[in-house]
Specification:
The chain is built from nine helices and 13 strands. It is α/β, with parallel strands linked by helices. A hairpin with a 2-residue loop joins strand 12 (221-227) and strand 13. The longest helix has 22 residues, at 244-265. The structure holds glutamine. Glutamine (GLN) binds next to helix 5. Glutamine binds at residues 52-55, 86-87, 90, 116-117, 147-148. Belongs to the glutaminase PdxT/SNO family. It is an enzyme of class 3 (hydrolase).
Length: 266
């Protein structure tokens, strides 16, 4: 069995568990999905989802539950497959801006800076049909739900510890750099950040109608990224009935587990 956890401290965790179950359907015997609230539960997981919600709250509760360090180890040292949606993406960023509500401690793992609440607060949510190339070229657009969503503002210089001048702004929170002595972590820094999806075309126009700023038409706002085993989306697939991204991500988890088992046998 492959065990996949959903961080269940705050936010839309039940929705993720439901869609994960929907995604595996008939093959459910091979998978176990658990809610994670303690370091012991985290230690059982082969993969982890960080749900949407409120990242400041989630981070505070994680700190109080003694989960922050175990989460950093899970993501940055063990490099087990991890997917963050919305608030979860914020926590997985190495750098984020503070909001009026303040900053928070980040887990990190993705060498990106995110801009929280990018689409403003006037009309804080919208749904837009997205083309997600990783679901396959002919896939139907994905009904993506954005709620006070972050975007990936920039990819940080490839690093062993962030080059702080690049991001040293007063409004910035930065995740503690990964332990550089660790061989696994060293290898992991070699992974590049891949842009998996941008907000462009019709989806960008819908976004523009509901926010205060105009979209970056040239490149499109970056709303999904992957770096090795760490994946993040600005939007909430768990709030739709569409399990395609969950199914895709579980295939990545499966591949990572197979790879680890193979290495273990050598
Ligand atoms: N804006 C929220 C935050 O900063 C994220 C919103 C969400 O997850 N829907 O944590």
């Amino acid at each position: 069995t492959i065990t996949v956890g959903v961080l269940a401290l705050q936010g839309a965790f039940i929705e993720h568990v439901n869609l994960l179950k929907q995604a595996v359907g008939q093959d459910s015997a091979e998978w176990e999905f658990i809610e994670v609230r303690t370091p012991q539960e985290l230690a059982r997981c082969d993969g982890l989802v960080l749900p949407g919600g409120e990242s400041t709250t989630m981070s505070l509760v994680a700190a109080r539950s003694n989960l922050l360090e175990p989460l950093r180890e899970f993501v940055k040292v063990l490099r087990k497959p991890t997917w963050g949606t919305c608030a979860g993406l914020i926590l997985l960023a190495e750098s984020a801006n503070r909001t009026k509500k303040g900053g928070q401690e980040l887990v990190g793992g993705l060498d990106v800076r995110v801009n929280r609440n990018h689409f403003g607060r006037q009309a804080e949510s919208f749904q837009a049909p997205l083309n997600l190339p990783f679901l396959g070229g002919t896939a139907e657009p994905f009904p993506a739900v954005f709620i006070r969503a972050p975007i990936v503002e920039c990819i940080l210089p490839h690093h062993k510890g962030i080059q702080v001048d690049e991001v040293d702004r007063e409004d910035t929170v930065v995740a503690p750099s990964r332990p550089t002595k660790d061989a696994v972590a060293e290898a992991a820094t070699a992974d590049n950040v891949e842009v998996m999806a941008t907000l462009s075309g019709p989806a960008a126009r819908i976004a523009t109608q509901s926010r205060n700023i105009s979209p970056d038409e040239e490149i499109g706002d970056v709303i999904a990224v992957r770096q090795g085993n760490v994946f993040g989306t600005s939007f909430h697939p768990e709030l739709t009935g569409d399990a395609r991204i969950h199914a895709w991500w579980l295939r990545q988890v499966q591949a990572a587990v197979n790879k680890r088992n193979k290495l273990g046998q050598q």
